[in-house]
Structure formats: C-alpha cells, structure tokens
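Backbone-to-sequence.
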C-alpha cells in the first residue's frame, strides 16, 4: 500500500488535475493506493478571506463564493463524463449551499469562532476530494470519496488540533484497511469526538497522508507537489539552490521546523515511528528523482544538507547578575512563557548565566514581555534582573545536516563566511545533537546570510563575485573587456563566477541583481541608466544584500574616493585604481586601513603604483616579514618614462606627450603626469606603505608643465600652449645629451626626505636602460642592504592596469593561485 498526497498546486487547474488522474491511475496499476488531496490551489485562502469578510458584515464574500462555485463546476464539466455530471453537480450544490448558510449566519451574527472558521475552511478539501474521486471513477478507476472526519479524531483545539493517535489509527484501519478501492481522502480536516470539524494546521494534508500511511503500515508515503523535492535552501531566497536527494527523518524535521515549506513538520513523526519512507516528488516532472526521507541519513561531502530560515522573529533577552548560579531561574522563565501560551523557537544562554535570550514569533512577543514583566516584577524592582529587552525584526537561519556531527570545521566555515560578509550575529544556538547550527540575524541581513552560508557549504566549488564598477573610461572599459575574455576560464578552471551587478560612470548608473553583460557599455548606461548618485548607487547595491560584493573604482575622482568609508561600512570590499584616497591626508589613508579591518572587508589598490606590477604587494610583504625600508627610489611614471625614453630631440616634445596620451599611459588630464603630481602620489603611497607618516606637503615636487599651460581650460588648449615650449625641452635634452646623459624623472624617499623631479643620469645608472613605459622601483631595506629589491616593467597602459585590477579581484575572491591575501 502506498499513500499519495497531492497539494493545492497539483490540483490547481484542469490540466494539473488531469496529470494527477493519470498518475493515480498508473500507480493503481502497480498496487494498492490511498490518495489524500488538498483544496484546489488558493481555495483555502479564499475561504479564510470570505469568512473574515462575512464576520465583518461585509457581503463581498458572496462574489467570492460565486467564483468558487464557478471554478469547481467548470472542473466538473471538463473532467467528468456527461452522464455522471448531474449527480456530481447536485452534490456540489448541496455542499456549497451548506457553506453559504454558514457564511450567512456569520454575517448576521458578526461572530466568528475558531470552531466555525475550521468548519468553513474544511469545505475546500471536501469539494476537491469529492470531485477528484468522481473524476477518477469517470476515467475508469475504482475510487471513492473518503471524508477524513470519519477517521481522524482530535481534541477541540480548533485551528491547530492535536490528533488522538490510537483512536485515529483504529478508525483508519477499520475504514481503509481492507479496501481495494482508491480512497480519495480529504486532507487537512479532522473532527472532535463529538463530530465537530477541526483542522490540522495549514499544510495539514501532508500530516493526513502520514497518519493514514502509519495506520495502514504503508510501504511509502508520496508527497506530490510543484517542486523537485526539498532544496538546499528556499528557492525564493537563494537563487543557486540545489535539490537534496535524501534526508533522515531528523534532518527533515529540523529543516521543516526552520521554514522549509515543502513538508509540514508534524508529517514526519507518524512516518518515522513506522519507518515508512516519505518521497517528495514533482507532479509536473514525475521522472525527476525528488527527495526521499528515510531512517538512515546519507552523509554528503558538505556535511550540511540544507539551509533554512524562520523569517521575522522577535528576540527577547533577560539580563541580570541576580540570575547567576540561581537554580530554577530558567524553569521560571519557561513556565511563565508556557502559561502565556508563548512558543519558544530558539534559546541561548551564555555560560556566565548573566543573560538568557530566546526567539519568539512577533505576534507572541508582547504576550511574552507582559508575562515575564509580571512574573519577574519583584526581581526587576530589586534589580536582580536589570532589564527585559525586546528586539523585533530578526530572523533565524539554520544549517542542518547529520554529517555535521563530530565533524570539525563546520562552525568555523559557517561563521567565517558570515564574518567575511560583514554579517552581525545576534545570537547563536547549536543543539547537542550537532545536527543544527542556528543564528539570529537582523531581517535585513537575511538574504545575504542565507546566500553566504549556502555558497560556503554547497557552492564552495563555484563562488559568485558580485561586482559594482564605477568608471568605464579607458581603464574601466579595458577591465570589462578582460572580464569578458576571462569569465569562462575563471568559471571552468577556478570556479569563480564574475557577476557584474552594478555599473556607473559620472552620468548614469545601473544595478541588476541577476548580473549584466560585460559588453555594450557605456551606450546602454546612456539609454537605460538612472542619473548617477553615489549614495543611491551604494544604497541599491546594499539593498541587494549579496554576499561577496565588491566595489571597483576606475575613476580618478576625489568625490568617489571620499566615499570609500561609506562603501566599507556597508561591508563591500574595495579594489581601486584611483590613487586619490591613499595619497590624500594621512588621516584618511589610516582611517581606510582601520575601517577595512573593522568591517572585515578587503581593500586592495595594487594598481596605484606601477599599474599591474607587483609593487604594493611586494612592499607589504617585506614590511609584514619584519623588513625595514631605508630608501625607496624609482621611476614611477609610465608617462614620464615613455616621454623621456622616446624623446630624441627630433619630434616636438608636445607630440611625444600626445603619444603618451594616445597610448593610454597618462592620467585623464596629462598635466597630472607632467606636473609630477601623479609620481608624488605614488611615492607618498609607497612611503606610507613602508610605515612612514608622510603628507603630500612634505614632498618636493618638480613641475614640468610650463606656467602658461598650467591653467589651460582644456586638454587641447594645454597641448597648444605646451607646443610653445618645445624648444625649451629640446634645449634641456641637448644639454644632457652633450654630456652623454639622459633625462629621467625620479622619485626618492629616504630618511623623511621625499623628492620627485627630473634628473640627468649617465649610462651606468641602473635606471638608464628603461624603455617604453617602463617603471622601476628599488627598495633598499635591511634585508636587501647591498643590492636593492627591484621591481621593473611596463608601469602604465590600460591592458596591464586592467590585469592588475583583476588580480586584486581574484585575490579577494580567494582563488587559490592568488590566495596570499596581503592587505
Ligand atoms: N592609465 C593608466 O595606465 C593607469 C591609470 N590608473 C588610474 O585609473 C583611473 C581611471 O583612469 P582612466 O580610465 O584613464 O580615466 P577616464 O577619464 O578615461 O575614465 C574615468 C571614468 O570615471 C567616471 N567618473 C569620473 N568621475 C566620476 C564620478 N564622480 N562618479 C562616477 N563616475 C565617475 C567617468 O565617467 C569615466 O567613466 C585613474 O584614477 C588613473 O589614475 C591607474 C593605473 C594605471
Ligand atoms: N599616468 C600614470 C598611469 C599609472 O598610474 C603613469 O603614467 O604612470
């Protein structure tokens, strides 16, 4: 004997019911079956609404009654043969008249008791089971309508009645034990010993099936629904959920208690007692495997089977030194709450015994507060309890799995992933069964928490990095090209999914949770974007609540770099090519380092010096390894390097500068290179990274921009004015050349002295062999005393810079090859 249960979604339409009829008929051919059905999709909710409206004296319930009648009649006409239709329709009319009478009574008396509500709600299943039994008969299957109220006996706790098991099992066995006919049983409803209709709680049809299965010692209980079994997380909240193949009864109980809605929690118990497997299958894809719930847990590699949540709970905390070491305190708390009919969902108590904290449903919170306030009035007055605090808008998230037992590292991974994503945990509980770790977080962190934990356990192989890019000029566009080129390889070889969730330039921005293509910008931003506002961009990005979220700054804007503190405080890691933040006031530089630590975010800016060259990383590593930096010396500008490596006195100097701009070496405004500011910024950053407290005003900077060109109001006019000085630059060049020297713009920091400026160097100088946009940085340190540690290579250009930014992103994403996280 197998028990098949079909939920509302499986009997939601004519098409769906046809599928159900086919399935039942096929299953019947394989052996004896009993069928439990829910009301047609949405009917119970409508009945609930109707009875509330009637009790308010509102006559609109009549329209809804008419709609229910029409819907059921239509199904009868479509699924039942013409000959049988009139009998079925007559019976249907009798049922609906009975419903109408009750509702009319409620509307006249304006009185709605829990008893009446249960009676009204039961009509959904009475109608559906009756129609389906007749439709089965009409299609040739020997079937009969079975009213569960004849069998399932409960106490009179209307709305959520408790089943009297022994009596119920006896009734079921007597009614169905020997039957060969397919009984189509009303789910959800039951009756008291006096024959009054009760209900088993919303979702109670699953429970009906389990009771019938246990009473008849069925070989299996099949719950047919509209999803492919129980998922690793709620599909509405976690996009990358996966189906769970099997669960133990205990795991299923834990998951269903914590909100996995596919199965109604009380369902497990009767099946478990009789060791009957429960299959959860999709009516619309019967070929899919689904989930099986059995005695034995199958241990999976991740140890965790599923992540579940109870959204919106209130956390109540009792605090006071008077509770320490006093026996019976906890008992008093729980007795007070039990007397007030408050259900405690989760409890934690610190071993100091100074606080007890527990979660309850919001609609029970004020009852709980009142009960505790009254019960502990004396202790509150005497100061034995300092306060009873209520914190609404919280959620509980639980990771569940039999394999968590005695497996070290599970909670480590769990909490590490939360910490990394800046999620604050309000309370923690782990049962001694070790099958469940639960945390309480604020409601607005729920989606992020679920996704973070889910990814940590199930998708550790594939990790989404959610990118929010600001600035799509030269560097930003090249970075997008690189994303496009590397995305597949990163996904396939390194399990990293680059997801562009936000993009902005100075005019517009766009945010999309599901991600956006890497191509088509900035045109798409122009036509579809929202006018840019940093606050709005961050706010919307934050609202997405995505784990592994990363801001990338590819602007040269101080407005953007001034915004970094807000970005970090919102728990976004940050990668920047923009040097403005780190070369601004020392206080700002230090604040950013501290904020990154405080908010547990990563802040990487390798491209601030030497573009894609590993300069900052190398310096950080030296400092962390205890080395002491004594002198920093180098050619830090790709632009100036290119200019003086290329200029030979033949082509006009201003044309060579233009060449640097065209090759993408310069800052958006090339005067920033020529005036030494870009080099000064880089030297300042290196000195700070080396541990020196330096301000920009401490630097001596040689400005190569001739006075008249400094204030030019556009880049074109700057070049025009610069051309007037071509001869002066030629003179400088010739002078050096006449001595066998060349010109080189050098940055130097030693013993608090920082200079950047143009120097003549001879052919033996270590910097004389540079070509193209080469940078060279020599670190003289205690460890590298005789010969400096040197980093050399192209130090500007869109390609190398984009590569450097992507390397920072991958470092943050923990790609093994980049896992040395020096921040
Ligand atoms: N060219 C190179 O070799 C290297 C450049 N960098 C740095 O890369 C950064 C970007 O340089 P480019 O791409 O050449 O600049 P760009 O001028 O071509 O592009 C800047 C982008 O930032 C956007 N933007 C400017 N202000 C904004 C604001 N307030 N809000 C939103 N968006 C804003 C612009 O709309 C544009 O999309 C600069 O900080 C530069 O120092 C770093 C290393 C090497
Ligand atoms: N304009 C800069 C680009 C890199 O930071 C340079 O020329 O070095």
């Amino acid at each position: 004997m197998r028990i098949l249960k079909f939920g509302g979604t499986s009997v939601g339409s004519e098409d769906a019911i046809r599928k159900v009829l086919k399935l039942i008929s096929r299953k019947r051919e394989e052996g004896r079956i009993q069928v439990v059905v829910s009301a047609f999709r949405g009917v119970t909710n409508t009945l609930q609404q109707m009875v509330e409206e009637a009790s308010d004296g509102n006559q609109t319930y009549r329209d809804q009654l008419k709609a229910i009648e029409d819907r059921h009649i239509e199904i009868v006409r479509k699924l039942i043969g013409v000959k049988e239709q009139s009998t079925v329709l007559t019976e249907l009319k009798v049922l609906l008249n009975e419903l109408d009478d009750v509702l009319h009574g409620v509307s006249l008396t304006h009185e709605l008791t829990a008893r009446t509500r249960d009676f009204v709600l039961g009509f959904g299943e009475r109608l559906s089971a009756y129609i389906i039994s007749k439709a089965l008969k009409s299609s040739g299957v020997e079937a009969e309508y079975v009213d569960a109220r004849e069998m399932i006996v409960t106490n009179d706790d209307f709305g959520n009645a408790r089943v009297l098991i022994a009596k119920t099992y006896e009734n079921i066995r007597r009614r169905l034990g020997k039957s060969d006919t397919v009984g189509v049983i009303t789910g959800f409803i039951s009756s008291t010993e006096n024959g009054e209709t009760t209900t088993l709680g919303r979702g109670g049809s699953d429970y009906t099936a389990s009771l019938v299965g246990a009473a008849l010692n069925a070989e299996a209980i099949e719950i047919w629904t509209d999803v492919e079994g129980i998922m690793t997380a709620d599909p509405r909240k976690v996009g990358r959920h996966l189906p769970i193949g099997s669960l133990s009864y205990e795991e299923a109980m834990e998951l269903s208690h914590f909100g996995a809605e596919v199965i109604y929690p009380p369902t497990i118990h009767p099946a478990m007692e009789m060791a009957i497997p429960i299959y959860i299958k999709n009516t619309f894809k019967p070929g899919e495997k689904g989930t099986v719930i059995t005695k034995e847990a199958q241990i999976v590699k991740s140890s965790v089977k599923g992540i579940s949540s109870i959204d919106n709970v209130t956390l109540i905390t009792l605090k006071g030194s008077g509770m320490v070491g006093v026996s019976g305190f906890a008992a008093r708390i729980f007795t007070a709450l039990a007397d007030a009919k408050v259900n405690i969902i989760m409890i934690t108590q610190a071993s100091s015994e100074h606080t007890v904290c527990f979660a309850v449903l919001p609609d029970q919170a004020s009852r709980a507060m009142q009960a505790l306030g009254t019960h502990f009035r004396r202790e509150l007055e005497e100061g034995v309890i300092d306060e009873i605090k209520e914190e609404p808008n919280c959620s509980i998230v639980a990771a569940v799995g039999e394999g968590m037992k005695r497996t070290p590292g599970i909670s480590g991974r769990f909490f590490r992933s939360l910490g990394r994503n800046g999620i604050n945990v309000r309370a923690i509980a782990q049962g001694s069964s070790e099958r469940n770790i639960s945390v309480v977080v604020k409601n607005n962190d729920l989606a992020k928490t679920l996704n973070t934990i889910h990814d940590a356990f199930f998708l550790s192989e594939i990790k989404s990095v959610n990118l929010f890019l600001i600035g799509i000029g030269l560097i930003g566009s090249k970075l997008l090209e690189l994303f496009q080129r590397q995305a597949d390889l990163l996904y396939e070889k390194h399990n990293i999914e680059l997801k562009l969730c936000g993009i902005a330039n100075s005019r517009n921005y766009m945010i999309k949770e599901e991600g956006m293509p890497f191509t088509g910008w900035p045109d798409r931003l122009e036509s579809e974007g929202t006018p840019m506002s940093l606050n709005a961009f961050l706010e919307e990005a934050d609202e997405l609540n995505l784990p592994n979220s990363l801001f990338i700054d590819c602007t040269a804007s101080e407005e953007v770099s001034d915004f970094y503190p807000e970005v970090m405080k919102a728990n976004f890691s940050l990668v920047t090519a923009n040097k403005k933040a780190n070369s601004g006031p020392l206080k700002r530089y230090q604040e950013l380092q501290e904020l990154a630590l405080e908010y547990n975010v990563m802040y990487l800016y390798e491209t601030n010096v030497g573009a894609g060259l590993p300069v900052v990383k190398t310096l950080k590593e030296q400092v962390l390894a205890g080395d002491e930096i004594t002198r920093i010396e180098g050619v830090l500008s790709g632009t100036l390097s290119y200019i003086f490596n290329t200029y030979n006195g033949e082509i006009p100097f201003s044309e060579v500068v233009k060449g640097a701009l065209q090759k993408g070496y310069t800052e958006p405004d090339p005067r920033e290179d020529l005036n030494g500011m870009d080099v000064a910024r880089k030297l300042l950053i290196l000195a700070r990274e080396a541990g020196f407290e330096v301000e920009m005003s401490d630097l001596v900077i040689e400005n190569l921009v001739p006075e008249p060109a400094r204030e030019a109001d556009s880049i074109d006019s700057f070049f025009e004015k610069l051309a007037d000085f071509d001869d002066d630059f030629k003179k400088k060049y010739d002078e050096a050349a006449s001595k066998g020297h060349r010109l080189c713009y050098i940055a130097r920091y030693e013993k608090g002295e920082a200079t950047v400026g143009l120097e003549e160097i001879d052919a033996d100088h270590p910097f004389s062999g540079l070509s193209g946009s080469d940078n060279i940085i020599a670190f003289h340190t205690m460890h590298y005393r005789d010969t400096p540690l040197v980093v050399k290579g192209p130090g500007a250009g869109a390609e190398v810079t984009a590569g450097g930014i992507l390397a920072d992103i991958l470092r943050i994403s923990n790609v093994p090859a980049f896992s040395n996280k020096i921040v």
